[in-house]
């Protein structure tokens, strides 16, 4: 993992040098900052938008079913996928950040439930990418690429992708190409069950397959980092990167023999740094350096994992919540747990996979964690892991994302 250490150390140092000049160059302008939490209730079909600073509820939106939330890459929209209700609602965050090189502009308006829905059989995976999002319908036999700018203009601009057959899969874009999971249509499955996944195929802009299907058995989990797209597989992690006009380059990072039995099924991608973090069974995670001859570094946890995230601001940090209520700070450079603290009561992993358990996000350089038993979002200092305050949220706050930032308001 030497490459990750080198890239991370350089990026952290560069980040320190690049923060202050943009602010000082525009001291005579009105610098503003706004952060909002979007929280879905576990039991009621409700999504709320909450002002992070004041804790005030800015919007409450009735949806159709249990919602999983995904923020777009820009943070301007949040998609609420409801697989049990066969529908996806879209919430406008009301925060628009525009990059101008030496500074960013910010425009702050009220959040809103957009007057557009996307319907199909069991929408599950939502993949945010630059300028668009990709919706995958497990039982619909299709994926849809949604243009975000058009959506915010009140229009629907959709490119539909044929996924061969219904299956629990995923699709993502890489330049002009689309990477989409492939079901094993010859496998014997029980009535009403979906077939397993056997690999990834590449489609060009006209929907034609490019090259052969890349093996990725039991594919689950997708993430993007530094123009790479990674998928969790039974054999290893499949990484797709920019190739040539004939399509992306796909490479399988096979699990080495010294790793215990397991596989990556959930994967996160570094936003400023080229690396991935994946689960590895219930009580382990792996750091993945796609450029290394030894790409995997295993980190063992004391008990089973409930949720984990990467910190886009504190680049060395990943946060892992375990079922005993401890939050662990993983140093992604050293590959070790740097510190931990008790932040909630224990939440067992036994029971249904969708039982109400805490979920994590980062917001304005802090950690926010839903605590559905106590109807609060807990806010933690990442340096000390001490709780700095709580935000009361009606019901059972569950899925959570954060949007926002700072910029110049003209």
Automatic annotation (TrEMBL):
Q: Which InterPro entries match?
A: AztD-like, Quinoprotein_ADH-like_sf, WD40/YVTN_repeat-like_dom_sf
What's the name of the protein? YVTN family beta-propeller protein
From which residue to which does the signal peptide run?
Answer: 1-25
Kindly give the NCBIfam families that the UniProt entry links to this protein. AztD (NF038015)
Q: Does the keyword Signal apply?
A: yes
Q: Which UniProt keywords apply?
A: Signal
Q: Does the keyword Ribonucleoprotein apply?
A: no
